[in-house]
Amino acid sequence: MSDLASNVTMALWATNLGVSVEGLHGWAACVDHEMAEARRNGADIFVMPEYASEQWLAFKPEGLASDREIAWMADLAPEAVDLAAKLAAKHDMLLVAGSLPWHTDAGQTNRAVILTPEGDRYFQDKLSLTPGEQEEDAWNLVPGKELQIMQWRGLRFAVLICLDVEMPALSCLLAPHSPDLVIVPSMTAQPSGYNRVFGCAKARAVELMTAVAVVGTTGTAVNSTQNPTNYSGAAVYIPCEPDLGFDGVFDKMEPGWDDGKAGPLLLARDVPIGTIRKLRSGEAEVWPGGWSAANVKVIENG
Question: Global pTM?
């Protein structure tokens, strides 16, 4: 596969967690099947959603308490990453294998896994946790502290997990680093959450003069105790520029709950990374660059 500095084709899998899998190898077989289809259609990058690992609850130990689910998934995570790394190499694709719980010295964190076909492994922890992720009697996670800028085959990219893309402060941190692409694995329970995440993803494309790819979970995981519904879809947003079609939507699928299958796959062909990079370098219609507002003073009146 050649350098991706000009165009990139992405496959975004809105995984249906309701599909039961038998063990990690059964899970990997499902991922393998979807990646093979995407690769046949020319995809360079394959993206799975946040908490793709919740599909593992279909084979969790009987009687596992809800507040032990995260630790149990984190126990399985290293083996799952090894299996996923083989798929990245097999299909010669960058694989963003969604996010999964991971053991750290401070506790478990929600970690996105990024695997190159060359064998590199990158990780991005969720930085801004939801209230539910912080509940001591539920999943009780700890936030990450670092934001990674990664490079692969001429492409500079970052990963923001779900709520992270709703945080403008993170956009300000990213701006000086000029990412070509921001990838957003997400999990949203209903249309309100979907619209928050996807609406903010589109805003980040404008703010950063970049492409933003976002995908979420659908369906309900077998044996889930925390997430009774999942409503989402997938989209690729780009800056709202005349050269890019004006409306900022490069490709998008309609959101939904459960398609009765493995989950819909969006194939976004030839995202114009090169054109966006030229616009970011000074050819955009009105973009002021990574503006920090450092010279602005807030004055409260009354």
Answer: 0.97
